[in-house]
Write a structure and sequence with these properties.
The complex is a heterodimer. Chain A has 15 helices and no strands. Chain A is an all-alpha fold. In chain A, helix 5 packs parallel to helix 8, helix 8 packs antiparallel against helix 11 and helix 9 runs antiparallel to helix 10. Chain A is flat. Chain B is mainly α. Chain B is 70% helix and 0% strand. The longest helix of chain B has 32 residues. Chain B is globular, with a radius of gyration of 26 Å. The two termini of chain B are 23 Å apart. The N terminus of chain B is likely disordered. Classes of the chains: A mainly alpha, B mainly alpha.
């Protein structure tokens, strides 16, 4: 309604010719901004499609003499990208699922049962999520070095340098944001539904599992999309808490590729494009979920 | 059942209406539904995550404060001998050469984000908040950088900035000897990085702001338009003040993002030579390059104290309303 109402009023105030002229200006401004915004990505793609020799001979801004996918193939094998993508999935899949599970339970209790402690706990989780991770890294690093872990989960018997450790810190850090969003969402679900189930003798767990979880599905889907992107994009945790370069997920592994790893700028461009692609695709396919997840938190449901 | 709809808002009204006795009665009826097993399940649901959050986030935060008064290097066990009082802070503020440059860079980051990137994001949101052909496509274009990590943003912008990159080629610097070293020059690289980081931040602000604009009551604008206000007046005098809660969230997120800045500077040159940032000094001093755990923790405490300002603002603004 709001979108329809605004132009209708404007029409009554301004003549039609001025409106059309305004639209032309508006679109020109937006198209110029769009071109500037897309340029770095398109330029990276353009560089990735050209051989290094051509760039040296003709300069970077020149008509392409050859275009091929060779650089992509080189980047894929030289940097062993598949290995790092697998590492990302090893971290991201359990981290996303467990974070949603834990935070949906927390949110259910916070949204449905009013204890005096609830608000304090919710603040504690959310504040933890907002803290710059570097504030806690020095003691956390020492804790990870000191905590033993069964060999089954860790090569060196420590939480440090294990996938378990990386998954754990993602869960702990992301739970705050997800609980905040989910508890706001669950407050909009009718209270009678859960209370009726409890009165009818359903257990707390059944009510959570059979009533709340199905109703919260839209919010969970939105958060899953967002969480996957957050975890895919994490650079810091796996950089510091994972020593073995080969075990790092893709974004942290970018650190291994810095400096002289690629002597060929155009292969580097291809690598950058390949690494950027998954989250762009997730966004293009699930843009509605994505934006909803992001704005659910800021606008209070 | 009537009183059950909004218990948090309803609670403070009780003393005025004289129904103080209603609080315990209502509470008892709610929890009497729960069996003992339910209560155990609930304690686990809340207790386990709380335990993990406290041990992995809040204990380290307090430990950082404690460590900042020591000269511990993590090799020998920590004893009273390691206590050095405020020595780390004195060194940090007076002789350590990278602290003030890092502070300046963090402040610069904040200033550019608050006064350039955020207004551009708001401007784009206002332009896009109308019935218009292609508005979804424009939104997607501006949002694409937001889904990328700042580490990969660094790699993408390297293609623009390097000696064989776009900018040098356009400026006619074809040989690497005459090329401008955008990422290596200590006076230029922070600006190059800020352009790249702003590219990402604008889309983030745009999406948050668009969601806020959609929630503004349309009759407010109609009333202002009928009273003869033009588009600019409607935005600055009517919409912007109504958007106060969103404005605060946007400012808080902007401040937090500036304090968290790490990835892009680290990926470009490990935060050296013109790209020093507080977050990077912490890790470089205590983990990746040296083992000055006490000194690094002192920098962490500075970062913590500054971060508490936006964090507390956020908590008070978003959750305070429920309690009061």
């Amino acid at each position: 309604m709001s979108e329809i109402a605004t132009p209708a009023v404007q029409v009554s105030v301004a003549p039609a010719g001025r409106i059309r002229w305004q639209r032309v200006v508006l679109h020109s401004v937006l198209i110029s901004f769009s071109l500037v915004w897309l340029f770095p990505i398109l330029w990276t793609l353009f560089s990735a499609l050209r051989p290094y020799g051509d760039v040296i001979a003709d300069g970077a801004v020149s008509w392409p003499a050859h275009l091929s996918l060779d650089n992509f193939a080189t980047a894929w094998t030289v940097a062993s990208l598949p290995k790092y993508f697998v590492n990302t999935l090893i971290v991201a899949i359990p981290a996303v699922l467990i974070t949603l599970w834990v935070s949906s339970m927390l949110a259910y209790v916070f949204a449905r049962f009013s204890f005096r402690l609830n608000l304090f706990l919710l603040m504690m989780f959310t504040a933890g999520n907002l803290l710059p991770p570097q504030v806690i890294i020095v003691p956390l690093y020492r804790i990870y070095l000191a905590l033993p872990l069964p060999r089954l989960l860790s090569d060196n018997g420590l939480v440090y340098d294990s996938y378990f450790g990386i998954i754990l810190i993602h869960i702990v850090f992301q739970t705050g944001f997800c609980t905040f969003v989910l508890s706001n969402y669950m407050k909009t679900i009718s209270r009678e539904l859960t209370e009726a189930a409890l009165v009818d003798g359903a257990s707390l767990w059944t009510t959570y599992r059979r009533v709340i979880l199905p109703l919260a599905r839209p919010a969970l889907a939105a958060l899953a999309t967002l969480l996957f992107t957050f975890i895919y994009n994490d650079f810091f945790w796996a950089l510091i808490l994972m020593k073995t370069g080969d075990k790092r997920p893709i974004t942290s592994a970018l650190n291994n590729f810095q400096g002289s790893f690629f002597t060929d700028q155009n292969v580097l461009a291809a690598m950058s494009f390949i690494v950027a692609l998954p989250t762009i695709l997730v966004y293009l396919v699930l843009s509605k979920q994505f934006v909803r997840g992001l704005t659910l938190g800021s606008t209070k449901g | 059942m009537l009183g059950e709809t909004e218990p948090l808002d309803a609670a403070p009204l009780e003393p005025q209406t004289g129904g103080a006795a209603a609080i315990p009665r209502r509470g008892r009826s709610r929890y009497s539904i729960l069996t003992r097993r339910d209560k155990t399940v609930m304690a686990l649901m809340v207790g386990v995550p709380t335990f993990l959050c406290v041990t992995l986030i809040w204990l380290p935060t307090i430990a950082s404060i404690g460590l900042s008064f020591t000269n511990w290097r993590g090799i020998t066990p920590l004893t009273d001998q390691n206590l050095v009082g405020l020595k780390n802070y004195v060194t940090l503020f007076t002789t350590y050469p990278f602290f003030w440059p890092a502070v300046i860079h963090n402040v610069l980051w904040l200033v550019v984000f608050v006064f350039i990137a955020t207004p551009i994001g708001i401007f784009l949101a206002v332009l896009l908040d109308r019935e218009m052909r292609g508005t979804r496509i424009y939104q997607s274009v501006f949002f694409v950088p937001v889904v990328l990590s700042l580490a990969i943003v660094g790699f993408i912008w390297e293609q623009i900035y390097t000696s064989q990159g776009f900018l040098n080629s356009v400026l006619g610097h074809t040989s690497s000897s005459t090329a401008i070293d955008f990422l290596g020059n200590a006076n230029l690289n922070i600006w190059a990085v800020l352009v790249a980081a702003s590219w990402r931040h604008v889309g983030y602000v745009m999406v948050l702001y668009l969601a806020g604009l959609k929630s503004v009551d349309p009759t407010l604008r109609e009333a202002a338009a009928i009273d003869g206000a033009n588009a600019r007046q409607i935005f600055f005098r009517v919409v912007f003040p109504v958007m106060r809660p969103i404005n605060i969230v946007v400012v808080v997120i902007t401040v937090i993002e500036s304090l968290r800045a790490f990835d892009i500077a680290y990926i470009i040159n490990r935060g050296k030579n013109g790209l020093e940032l507080l977050s990077i000094l912490i890790t470089n001093n205590s983990i990746s390059e040296a083992n000055l755990l006490g000194f690094g923790s002192a920098i962490a405490v500075v970062l913590l104290l500054v971060s508490l300002v936006p964090i507390v603002t956020f908590l008070v603004r978003t959750m305070g309303r429920d309690t009061v």
